[in-house]
């Protein structure tokens, strides 16, 4: 398996564990200690802890949150994913959907950097 295929498999497994299985603690294994999130919703963040806390807040907001990887591309140490997020807002009970693109940089078998764009959550009929 090429390094690009290994990186894509790592990112797919990361989404499955971190989002779909709601295992926030996986952040300590998957993110580099100096992981840099350029687009963390609460401001640029360093290390696995801010990512873990962001997902824990997201689990509360959307308790049934699931992400589907629609497309995944890799080149060199970068992996780009187009994904769809679905979940029910805990306050309004309204099913929501949002879409995103994320680019990860991997180093030494860990997620080292992240750039992401998400659409605002929209109600699903």
TrEMBL record:
Among InterPro entries, the record links this protein to: Cyclase_SnoaL-like, NTF2-like_dom_sf
Q: Name one GO biological process term.
A: polyketide metabolic process
Origin, by domain of life?
Answer: Bacteria
**Protein name per Swiss-Prot or TrEMBL:** SnoaL-like domain-containing protein
Q: Which organism is it from?
A: Gloeobacter kilaueensis (strain ATCC BAA-2537 / CCAP 1431/1 / ULC 316 / JS1)
Q: What is the lineage of its organism?
A: Bacteria, Bacillati, Cyanobacteriota, Cyanophyceae, Gloeobacterales
């Amino acid at each position: 398996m090429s390094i690009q295929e290994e990186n894509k498999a790592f990112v797919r497994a990361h989404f499955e564990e971190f989002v779909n299985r709601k295992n926030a603690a996986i952040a300590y294994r998957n993110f580099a200690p100096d992981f840099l999130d350029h687009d963390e919703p609460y401001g640029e963040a360093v290390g696995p802890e801010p990512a873990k806390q962001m997902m824990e807040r997201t689990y509360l907001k959307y308790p049934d949150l699931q992400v589907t990887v629609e497309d995944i591309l890799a080149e060199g140490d970068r992996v780009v994913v187009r994904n769809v997020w679905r979940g029910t807002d805990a306050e309004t009970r309204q099913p929501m959907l949002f879409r995103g693109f994320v680019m990860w940089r991997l180093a030494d078998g860990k997620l080292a950097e992240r750039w992401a764009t998400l659409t605002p959550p929209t109600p699903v009929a």
